[in-house]
Structure formats: C-alpha cells, structure tokens
Write a sequence for this structure.
C-alpha cells in the first residue's frame, strides 16, 4: 500500500484486526498487513501508545453510534436497561478489542485527551439517561459507576466463559442484576 492510500482509519482498522487475531500490536505487523514499511506509520502515529489511544476512541465511537440508534425514543429505566444490554452485546461481540481497550492505562488516555470525545460522549449518554430518574446528583454519579461496573464485570465474566450455567441465561441474570440495582438507587 502506498502512502497515498494509507490513512489513519486504515491503520486503526488493521491494528484492530491484529488484536482480534491475537497478534502483537507492533508497527512492523501493521505495516506488513498493509503492505507498506513501518516508517510510513510514523507519519500518522508517533508510537504504539498513540495508536492505542486512537483504537480506544474508535471502539468507543462505534459503541456510541450503536447506542444512539438503539436508544432513540427511550427514557428512564427502559433506556438504562437498553444502554446496558447494547453495551454488553457490543463488548462481547468485540471481546478481544474490549480486553485491549480495558487494559489501556488511564495515564495513556489522559495524554491523548483530544481523542477522548467518544469516551466522554459514552459517559454523557448514561448520565443523561440517569437524569430521567428521580435521584439526586450524588446518587446519579454512584448509579453511573455501578452500571458501568455491572457491564464491565458481566463482559469479563461472560467473555472468559465463567457464566456457563444453563439454569439462568447470561442475559437474564444480567437484566435481573440491573433491575435490582435500579430499584435500589435510593440506597446509594
């Protein structure tokens, strides 16, 4: 691939494909997959850390788009349940990327704050949904954290194969946990 056809998006997508295939994320591997020299990638990213921050942004942008489509016209508890279900499904569908994104150190993401727009938008969506519930600001913040914790915990457990009991489906137990949490927001 010549430098004329090389783009930031192609590099990010190739990097994500390597992650999905569980291959090391190096400029050498990316350039090999793109048919170019690794030096060409430095015109787009100074290092793998900057690329990792862009992968995080692309991953979150995809989730934000999915949520915007699925949450249209919903509010309250119904919208929060949908937010959690869509986030869970998206994360499990892209589990290798999810693991990669969750493992990126916060300091690395803080260095690239200009790329954090989708990450912030993701938090805003949940927070706006919680504003439709009748809870104060402090409980809203705790509720947002709790819901994110439930989603991430569920994704890690299901993705690792730890929830294999046939008695209750993974989706049903997840929804039940969310409902218990939502019905006890006043206790936060």
């Amino acid at each position: 691939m010549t430098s004329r056809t090389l783009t930031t998006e192609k590099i990010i997508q190739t990097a994500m494909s390597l992650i999905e295939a569980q291959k090391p994320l190096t400029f050498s591997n990316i350039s090999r997959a793109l048919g170019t020299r690794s030096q060409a990638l430095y015109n787009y990213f100074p290092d793998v850390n900057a690329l990792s921050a862009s992968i995080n942004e692309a991953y979150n942008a995809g989730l934000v788009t999915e949520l915007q489509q699925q949450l249209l016209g919903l509010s309250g508890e119904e919208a929060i349940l949908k937010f959690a279900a869509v986030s869970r499904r998206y994360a499990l569908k892209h589990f290798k990327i999810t693991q990669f994104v969750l493992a990126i150190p916060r300091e690395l993401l803080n260095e690239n704050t200009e790329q954090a727009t989708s990450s912030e938008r993701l938090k805003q969506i949940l927070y706006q949904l919680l504003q439709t519930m009748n809870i104060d600001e402090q409980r809203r913040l705790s509720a947002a954290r709790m819901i994110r914790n439930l989603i991430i915990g569920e994704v890690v457990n299901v993705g690792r194969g730890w929830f294999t009991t046939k008695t209750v489906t993974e989706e049903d137990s997840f929804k039940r946990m969310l409902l218990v949490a939502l019905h006890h927001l006043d206790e936060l």
